[in-house]
User: Fold this.
Amino acid sequence: MDKKLKILETLDSYFPDFNGPTVLVTNYVKILNNKNDCSLLVPKYPNHEDNQPFTIQHVKSMGIFEGFRCSFPFYDKKAKEFVKKGKFDIIHSHSPFPIGNFAAKMGKKLNIPTVITLHTKFKDDIYRLTKSHIVTWFVMKYMLRTFNRTDYVWTVSDGAAQTLREYGYKGKIDVIRNGTDMKYPSNPAQLIETVNKEYNLEKTKNLFLFVGRIVETKNLDMLFRALKILKEENIEFTFLLVGDGSHLNHLKKLAETLDIKDRIIFTGKIMDREKLSGFYLRSDLFLFPSVYDTASLVPLEAASMKLPTLLVKDCQTSETVTDGVNGFTALNDEKDWAKRIKEIISAPERLAEIKEECHKSVYRSWEDVLNEVNEKYLEIIEDYKKKHGKKEEE
Assistant:
């Protein structure tokens, strides 16, 4: 029988801030708890109560920008006591900021192995938000120090590992790829019908979809220009844009400027996973033009519903996609995207084959991921004991 572990996962953001790492860490804790005792350490958000089936310890924090929080774990007595008395076998951080740094230091103090995963191109985000090279340099130096303090380092893609090397990290890196909680449903026709009725899509041909945070780094401006080209060439299509964010109003104005407003449906944020499944099932092609993401979850969600994705060629999220086999790629250029979309929709039989193949080879469940993670945790704990001795019992 496998050893039941005491695990602590940490993240410097959480619900109601909705992002990829938030979804990921929630699935980590839920599924790891099938075999283990897993808890979560995250910032405290004002006026928000968690409704999760696992233990969450909150850390004092304050808002900074775009929903991000700055936490103060070193000044939070309850957080310190929670970690000290938790008798954890391993601590896994999913961000390198105050809570991740706190986890690394507490691991050293308590002789507990620590893991950290790089999920995001932080340097790009920090500069975008601050427009300051000095602030970016300072934050990156802090971030790299956290990685160097942590015992074991993971990333979610080979490209993310290369990004971490570019940031200056020189140690060993393991790649543990992401998964999704979505599974192909037993009632796809019903879910499709619900979406058709709500958005009047019964007769719509060539329905394209994007799901995610509506921020500048998603490269949606380029996609809108590609859609303008399709409209000018009299290609019939409708584009569903699902999500919310700081770039949304800009995109609404851009749709008017490019005269494609009549082809776009802005749905806002959709938190209902069943309803979201209906969007994926009803759509003909998922469009994900981001070159920022290291390994986005939404193409995996799409693949779970047999919906292939068009991505920017050689972006980090495209690592598991072979163009024309289990998905599609195009150059980061609106003309090439418009050309590739036309090619895809003009070959419906081939598209149907690729829909099946993306489900077979791109889709990966969180259960599969967490089985791998659980084995890695056991290996790390044994390796750490050999190097540092057993953890001291209180």
